[in-house]
Specification:
CATH architecture: Beta Barrel
Number of domains: 1
Shape: globular
CATH topology: OB fold (Dihydrolipoamide Acetyltransferase, E2P)
Order of helices and strands: EEEEHEEHH
CATH superfamily: Nucleic acid-binding proteins
CATH class: Mainly Beta
Number of helices: 3
Largest sheet: 6 strands, antiparallel
Helix content: 10-25%
Strand content: over 45%
Amino acid sequence: MALELSGKVISLLPEQTGSGKNGTWSKIDFVIETEDQYPKKVCFSSWGDKVAQVKGLQPGQKVKVSFNVESREFNGKWYTDLRIWKLETNSQNSAQGEGPDFDAYPISANDEYLSAAKDSNPSDDLPF
Protein backbone atom coordinates (compact mmCIF):
# COMPACT_ATOMS: atom_id res chain seq x y z
CA MET A 1 0.00 0.00 0.00
CA ALA A 2 1.65 3.27 -1.15
CA LEU A 3 0.48 6.60 0.27
CA GLU A 4 1.51 10.27 0.18
CA LEU A 5 1.38 13.05 2.75
CA SER A 6 2.59 16.65 2.65
CA GLY A 7 3.48 18.87 5.56
CA LYS A 8 6.07 20.79 7.48
CA VAL A 9 9.00 19.10 9.25
CA ILE A 10 8.73 19.67 13.00
CA SER A 11 11.30 17.22 14.39
CA LEU A 12 14.24 15.01 13.44
CA LEU A 13 14.92 12.18 15.86
CA PRO A 14 18.43 10.78 16.52
CA GLU A 15 19.82 8.24 14.06
CA GLN A 16 19.76 4.61 15.21
CA THR A 17 22.22 1.96 14.00
CA GLY A 18 22.74 -1.71 14.65
CA SER A 19 23.56 -5.04 13.12
CA GLY A 20 21.37 -7.98 12.32
CA LYS A 21 21.41 -11.19 10.35
CA ASN A 22 21.52 -9.17 7.08
CA GLY A 23 24.40 -6.92 8.20
CA THR A 24 24.49 -3.40 9.60
CA TRP A 25 21.52 -1.07 9.37
CA SER A 26 20.73 2.58 10.04
CA LYS A 27 17.41 4.28 10.64
CA ILE A 28 16.24 7.81 11.32
CA ASP A 29 12.74 8.98 12.19
CA PHE A 30 11.26 12.39 11.51
CA VAL A 31 7.93 14.04 12.27
CA ILE A 32 5.86 16.26 9.99
CA GLU A 33 2.72 18.24 10.69
CA THR A 34 0.07 18.24 7.97
CA GLU A 35 -1.42 21.54 6.83
CA ASP A 36 -5.05 20.41 6.83
CA GLN A 37 -7.92 22.14 8.60
CA TYR A 38 -7.14 19.87 11.56
CA PRO A 39 -3.33 19.35 11.41
CA LYS A 40 -1.96 15.95 12.39
CA LYS A 41 1.55 15.03 13.46
CA VAL A 42 2.93 11.93 11.72
CA CYS A 43 6.21 10.10 12.41
CA PHE A 44 7.99 8.44 9.46
CA SER A 45 10.91 6.00 9.40
CA SER A 46 13.73 6.22 6.91
CA TRP A 47 16.03 3.25 6.39
CA GLY A 48 19.30 2.64 4.53
CA ASP A 49 20.12 5.00 1.68
CA LYS A 50 17.23 7.36 2.56
CA VAL A 51 18.85 8.26 5.92
CA ALA A 52 21.28 10.72 4.30
CA GLN A 53 18.42 12.53 2.57
CA VAL A 54 16.46 12.87 5.82
CA LYS A 55 19.53 14.18 7.67
CA GLY A 56 19.48 17.19 5.34
CA LEU A 57 15.98 18.26 6.42
CA GLN A 58 15.45 21.37 8.53
CA PRO A 59 12.56 22.05 10.94
CA GLY A 60 9.97 24.20 9.19
CA GLN A 61 10.84 22.83 5.73
CA LYS A 62 7.88 21.68 3.61
CA VAL A 63 8.05 18.12 2.30
CA LYS A 64 6.01 15.58 0.39
CA VAL A 65 6.49 12.03 1.64
CA SER A 66 5.63 8.87 -0.28
CA PHE A 67 5.51 5.89 2.05
CA ASN A 68 4.34 2.35 2.71
CA VAL A 69 2.56 1.17 5.83
CA GLU A 70 4.02 -1.99 7.32
CA SER A 71 3.19 -3.84 10.54
CA ARG A 72 5.14 -6.65 12.18
CA GLU A 73 4.74 -8.82 15.25
CA PHE A 74 7.43 -9.21 17.91
CA ASN A 75 6.90 -11.15 21.15
CA GLY A 76 3.12 -10.95 20.88
CA LYS A 77 3.01 -7.19 20.20
CA TRP A 78 2.38 -5.48 16.88
CA TYR A 79 4.45 -2.54 15.63
CA THR A 80 3.58 -0.34 12.67
CA ASP A 81 6.09 1.65 10.59
CA LEU A 82 5.47 4.32 8.00
CA ARG A 83 8.52 3.65 5.80
CA ILE A 84 9.38 6.32 3.28
CA TRP A 85 10.42 5.37 -0.23
CA LYS A 86 10.44 8.88 -1.72
CA LEU A 87 10.99 12.29 -0.15
CA GLU A 88 10.47 15.56 -2.01
CA THR A 89 11.39 18.93 -0.55
CA ASN A 90 9.81 22.23 -1.55
CA SER A 91 12.79 23.05 -3.81
CA GLN A 92 12.33 19.74 -5.67
CA ASN A 93 8.58 20.37 -6.09
CA SER A 94 9.10 23.67 -7.90
CA ALA A 95 11.95 22.26 -10.00
CA GLN A 96 9.71 19.42 -11.18
CA GLY A 97 6.87 21.74 -12.13
CA GLU A 98 4.56 20.61 -9.36
CA GLY A 99 3.88 24.12 -8.25
CA PRO A 100 4.87 27.62 -9.24
CA ASP A 101 7.88 29.19 -7.61
CA PHE A 102 6.69 32.78 -7.42
CA ASP A 103 10.16 34.05 -6.49
CA ALA A 104 11.38 32.82 -9.87
CA TYR A 105 9.22 35.39 -11.69
CA PRO A 106 10.27 38.87 -10.52
CA ILE A 107 8.39 41.92 -11.75
CA SER A 108 10.17 43.34 -14.78
CA ALA A 109 10.57 47.02 -15.64
CA ASN A 110 7.90 46.64 -18.38
CA ASP A 111 5.36 45.29 -15.88
CA GLU A 112 5.95 48.29 -13.61
CA TYR A 113 5.60 50.68 -16.58
CA LEU A 114 2.30 49.10 -17.68
CA SER A 115 0.94 49.21 -14.16
CA ALA A 116 1.83 52.90 -13.79
CA ALA A 117 0.32 53.77 -17.19
CA LYS A 118 -2.96 52.05 -16.31
CA ASP A 119 -3.22 53.96 -13.01
CA SER A 120 -2.52 57.32 -14.69
CA ASN A 121 -5.47 57.14 -17.15
CA PRO A 122 -8.70 56.41 -15.21
CA SER A 123 -10.98 57.34 -18.18
CA ASP A 124 -10.14 53.98 -19.83
CA ASP A 125 -11.77 52.02 -16.99
CA LEU A 126 -14.46 49.60 -18.07
CA PRO A 127 -17.71 49.48 -16.09
CA PHE A 128 -17.24 45.80 -15.20
